[in-house]
Inverse folding.
């Protein structure tokens, strides 16, 4: 028989300002995620996800937008920028999301 399809990828949004990195939602199920990051700070930044799986962006210019695709595993993540004056945030990844096996009209 066929293997079940993976879960539908989740879309996350992140904002970096002069004070903090914020990711919404901050609780998701494990699986593929695409993070769109808006840099609203005065500095060029790189954003890193550190946890059970790791990933980081290329430099995002001040006022620019970047993205990152990650295979999130269950656990706690710290989201940090490479600018020391910008505070990090955390995110919780729960159990894997259900298969998209019987979902129609998915991309």
């Amino acid at each position: 028989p066929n293997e079940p399809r993976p879960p539908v990828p989740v879309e996350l949004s992140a904002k970096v300002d002069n004070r903090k990195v914020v990711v919404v939602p901050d609780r998701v199920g494990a699986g593929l995620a695409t993070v769109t990051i808006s840099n609203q700070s005065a500095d060029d930044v790189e954003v890193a996800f550190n946890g059970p799986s790791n990933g980081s962006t290329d430099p995002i210019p001040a006022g620019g937008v970047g993205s990152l695709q990650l295979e999130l595993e269950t656990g706690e993540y710290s989201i940090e920028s490479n600018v020391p004056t910008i505070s990090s945030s955390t995110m919780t990844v729960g159990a894997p999301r259900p298969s998209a096996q019987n979902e129609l009209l998915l991309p």
